[in-house]
Amino acid sequence: MFTLGLKVADDIHLFSALGPKGGPPKTANDLAASTATQPALLSRILRHLAANGVVGEEGGEQTSYSATEVSEVLASDEGSSGIRHSVQIYHPILRHGPDYLKSIDYAVPKDNKNAAFQHSVGQSGQSYFDWLQAPENKAAARDFNLLMTYTVRYRKSWMETFPADRLLKGESNQDLPILVDIGGGMGTEVLEFRRRFPHVRGRVILQELPNVIEMAKEKNQGLTDQHVEYQIHDFFTPQKVHGARIYFMGSVLHDWPDAEARKILRNLAPAMKKGYSTLLLNENVISAAGCHPHLSALDLTMMTLFGAQERTEAQWREMLMLEGFKLVAAHSIPSSWKTVLEVELA
Fold first, then answer.
1. Stretch 163-192: mean pLDDT, rounded?
2. Phi, psi of 74 (to 5 degrees)
3. What pLDDT does residue 224 have?
């Protein structure tokens, strides 16, 4: 019922109607007038949202409601994308996922084109990302990319922890690739890189599929090609940028079963310059025991959406080794579930 309240609130733009945190409280009648709803219905939705801390509530002759940090986030397109994505994707999986696992005799799903998602929302033989590429799913693709942008923007940046200066020291050739963000979504990481390291010369490249590049360019209007290059690239094909100082993938490989993840790595390896190029993987590293519930939930999400998994450090090491890489170091990001895996050619 909590998600129902959130989805209705998003549909009627309730969080925008509440205004910013610190603004004047509003009654259900005030908000009903702003959202074209009946006050009696809206007061029931507001009561549940207040009970869950999404909106503020003040008693009195007439109960009034106010914005919170949470409702402020949900008023934005990025923040509310998670509500829509959850209702469209995760809720059908919750409903049909158990029957799917039963149908495969409770084996471990390893096929990204035949997971619980295909039996709930998509269709067999089409991966989740294939489904997002379909014209009829353009709104879902937009919500997914907005959600990924939001999660990257509001979590602690890997650049605060990883000693990137060590890799960037002495780089002064503006024609050489300094950073290639593979599957980098809307470009949050490359823009942050430019902001944090304005003195570093060299090409910074965002690689994504055509529809995502289109959305990224639209979102990041005002930037010139000298800041960030937008490059169409499918990471299941050979890497087209050779000899970069840093190749970066943020939460990419956990979306894929081992066979596909290894293929992505296999396509990258020939482009890297041994003794110079570094691959940085900003990923979850799950514990075999004593796991945080957020990470264990993500592991089940990867399983049901993609037939994939979150991996332990030992599993990361093995997969990298099988494709000719070595894990140099694992840099945990404080106050985050993420770890930066520093990888080189073996």
1. 90
2. -70, -15
3. 53
